[in-house]
Design goal:
The chain has helices at 44-55, 57-62, 75-85, 98-102, 144-152, and strands at residues 14-17, 22-24, 32-37, 65-71, 90-93, 106-111, 114-119, 122-126, 132-136. By secondary structure, it is of the alpha+beta class.
Length: 154
């Protein structure tokens, strides 16, 4: 569970996208950002979330937002995922989990009585000045773009 709070500055991040290109939080100075963290490419919930954000991408872009996804998958996994679903935004390969840990979304999870470390699905809405405007911890994977738009419209 993240210890970051709404109203705080979003931590610096840098990582490699699906094309092997370095992306940092500095690339988004003066721009608004939807930074979402998800467990794994090509799983049902993560695919639903990515496709929802892709379907709502023009609406989010119309409000001045860039969308970036982060998971521990490799750049090549991200490239295949983007190609398969024709995604319009960058995915960062955080294989060393530095960004996940910085944002507090790499945490102990439990499933079927088993405890393990994994990504806690979380979305950060970040303003153009780098301030965290909203943290979504209860992500509606099937309708995530609309969930974000509803928050932005209030």
């Amino acid at each position: 569970m993240t210890t970051l709070k709404e109203g705080e500055k979003a931590p610096y991040f840098e990582g490699i996208n699906q094309d092997g290109k370095k992306i940092t939080s500095d690339d988004f100075k003066g721009k608004k950002l939807i930074l979402y963290f998800y467990p794994k490419d090509n799983t049902s919930g993560c695919t639903a979330e990515a496709c929802s954000l892709n379907d709502g991408y023009s609406s989010l872009a119309g409000k001045g937002f860039e969308v970036v996804g982060v998971s521990p998958d490799s750049a090549s996994s991200h490239a295949k995922f983007i190609a398969k679903y024709n995604l319009s935004f960058n995915l960062i390969a955080d294989t060393d989990k530095k960004i996940l840990e910085t944002y507090g979304v790499w945490a102990e999870k439990k499933m079927y009585g088993r405890t393990y470390m994994g990504v806690v699905r979380t979305t950060f809405i970040i303003d153009g000045d780098g301030t965290i405007r909203k943290i979504i911890t209860k992500v509606n994977t099937k309708d995530h773009a609309q969930q974000i738009l509803d928050i932005l419209n209030h």
